[in-house]
Structure formats: C-alpha cells, structure tokens
What we know:
Chain A is an all-alpha fold.
Amino acid sequence: MSKVEIPSPSDAELIARAQSGDEEAFGDLYVRYLDPIYRYLRIKVDEAADAEDLCEAVFLRTFEALDRYQERGHPFSAYLYQVARSQLADFYRTHVVGVDLEQVPEPAAEDADPEATYAQHEQALDAVRSLGKLREDYQEVIRLRVVLELPTSTVALWMDRSPGAVRVLLHRALIELRKELDE
Amino acid sequence: MSKMEPDVLDRCLLRIQSGQATLEECLIDNPEHAQELEALLRVAAVTRAQLTPAGPSPAFRINSPKRVMNLARARRKASVMAPRSRPKITRQPAFRLVGALVAVALLVGSVGVAYASADALPGDNLYGIKRGLERAALVVSLSAEGDAELWLEQADRRIAEVEELVRRGRGKDVGLALAGYENAVREGLEIASEQGVGLSDLGAALSKHEQTLIEVLEKAPEQAAPALSRALERSKSGREEIKQIRKEGQHPSDPTPGPQKKTPKPKKEATELPPGQQKIDEARERGLPAGQLKKTETAKSNGSD
Lengths: 183, 305
C-alpha cells in the first residue's frame, strides 16, 4: 500500500541537506517517494516504460529546481505531485490521450479459470471506462484516495483542498462512479 | 433514514484500507447507512482491485536514482561548459554607449553582490548566492586537487558560519551550515579515498573542526545541540577514515601526517590533463569541435616550423 507517512529524518531536513549539495539526501527523498509517484504515473499511462521515463523526469526536474524550492505550507510530496502532473501534461501533448482499453492487463494466473479470467478482464475494462466518464476531479480523488490508498490528509494537500472538501468530493465521486458502473 | 455524511464513508474506507475492519463490520457499525455505504464501498473495492497498478520493478527501484543523479550532474556540467551562440545585434552609436554603461553597472553590481555575499550566513538573503558561487567554483574546477581544496574550504567556511551563528544566538540556522559541513567532509573524504589527494590537509582540518565544535557546543542553544553533536561525530569518524586509508596504504604518495601549514594549492594547469582531454576542453572553450581544433593545431605547428 502506498502510504505517505511522516518519516525520519524529516523531508525538511533532507531537503536542507540536498540544497547544500548532499546528493545522498536527495537520493533518500527519491527512494521515499518513488513508489507513490511511480504508481500515480502508472495509472495515467499505458506502458510501464512510459511511467518509468516520466518518473525519472519528475525527480530530475525536482532536483534541478531544488535550490529554489521552499515549503510554504505544502509538503514535498505535494510538490512532486504537481511536477508529475506537469510532466503528464507534456506527455499527453505528444502522445495519444486516454487509457488504451486494449492495454488493461489480463490476469495471468497459470491455472486460472478462463471464464473467471474473462469476467475479471471485462470488469477491469468497465472500471476504466466508467472512471474515464467522470469529471476530472472525481477521477483524481478516486485515483488518489481509493486506488493508491493515500490518506485523506495527503490527498487534501496534493489536491490543494481541505480534508473535509476531499471527503465530500470522494463521496460524490463514488456515487457517480456507481451510476456509471450500473449503466 | 438520515442522509449519510461523507465522513462516515471516509472513515470506513480508512478502516478497511488499514485492515482494522472488514466491509461487513463497517456496515454493522453504521446500520442506519448500511445500504448506501455497502454500495459505495463495493464500488471502491472493485475499482481498487481492477485499477491498482503494479509498483516499480526492483531493477528500476535500484537503478533509477543513480541514473537520475548522473544525468543531473552531466547536465549541470554541460550547461556550464557549453559555448553559447550570441545573436548578432546592431545598435546605433548612442545606444552602444548606453548599453556599455548598463553592462558596466551590471558587472559592478554583480561583483558587489558576490563580494557582499561572502559574509552571508544561513538564513541571510545573500546566503544562496554564496553557496551558488561555491557550487560554480566546483563545476569549473579541473582537477581532483582543485576539488579537494574547494571542499576543504567549504568545510572551513561552514564551521566559521556555525561559530558566528552561535555567537549571534541564531541557533535555528545552525542546522543548514552543519548539513553543508557534513557534506563537504564526505566529499573531501571521497576524493581523498579515491584519488589519494588532500589526505593530510583534511586530517589537520578535521582536528581543528573537532576542537571548534566542542567549544561551540558548550555555548550553543539546546536546539542546535543534536546537529552539533552529529557534526562532531562526523569529524571524528572522518579522522578515523583517514587513518584507515593510510593504514591500508592505498595512497603512499600522500605525505605523512603531521602538523602542516595549509597552503592553497594552485589548480592543475591544463597541460597536466591527459592530452586527449586537454584538447577537448580547449575545443569546448573556443567553441570548436575537437576535430577542428586538431586541424587548427596542426596548421599552427606547420606554420611555426
């Protein structure tokens, strides 16, 4: 599960060290946030290789801008998320937009029942199609809070909303998703 | 039946995700909203099950940070070394004069800012400029000796900053200076260990730093004590590492330890670089491809003979 917890040493401490030239400290930040950032990107693009390229671009851009980084009430993970969104926007400008439904992975258990496998694949397609029909902020809150299982407080910081607003958004988003899945 | 509050859904989701409850237990705990809650939690469960992506591969996890850091270093070097093409601008004579005056004013201003930043401390407005100039010096340094010297100077400077910050009662800013100190020591040790340069200077400096840090620690505010203690440990462990490097005899060319007056070493002249690298560097400085430089040099030597 990709949880962003308060680790030790703190992000602020590692950032201060990285800003003073300690590359190892930035490496620690990289390892700390690789998983949630990669997974977030992986949901948004078809190919694992694209997610890897984007992920490296996010950290490279962050490293190069680190001298100018100031927390200003937003944690480092929220900054990475914003950089990731910006990289995705660049990516979409040069690639076909949207999830390729043919790319939804089929479960590949060796002794899987073909019928069950087919049903599962169909369910996955349904989920992708239905999610894609929702408003962008509904899709985003479901991706972050339900699929990536990030805590509400983190989702609130990443989406620049209050935790209460995120709860309301999630509630409405799931109601809409349910309607889409039922259709 | 009352309308379900969004908090109820979020709380149940959290309990299920953290393994504290099952969906059924959540429904039992919220009987008045059981129907709606069940529908939404099942939608959430299906969506998560179908869309949760795989994490990064183990190979990517290991190699990616190294690859990105190498790329960042290469780009940083390239941005400093790359010759820049300048657009040709034609101006009227009066504008030329104004342009020249503005350029002189900017140059004087920049030098002034750079000069003023020399005394800046962590937390000061000009401190970023001071550190930026230090980094720039490292980027243009051409030799391991030069790098070792610069890291040592940085370590000395950070310790001086720590002393000054404590004297001024600015304990909250000590951490940044000490982080820079630890980094400078680590880099210095890495060069000493890999290239066999600067061992003696670094050893002597670390002894001095250790003494200074002990004195500062006695006067420092409580909030600065943990960072000071850690830096002190770094100095000690650095000296141990130097002893170990000497003991292993990795670099017999390094002078024997002992009290030495630290004199700044001149940077290695370009002629001390490997011949191939020297030519490439010269070509870059002159904005020429290396091949073209070779032709130019050949023409020169032919002409002089």
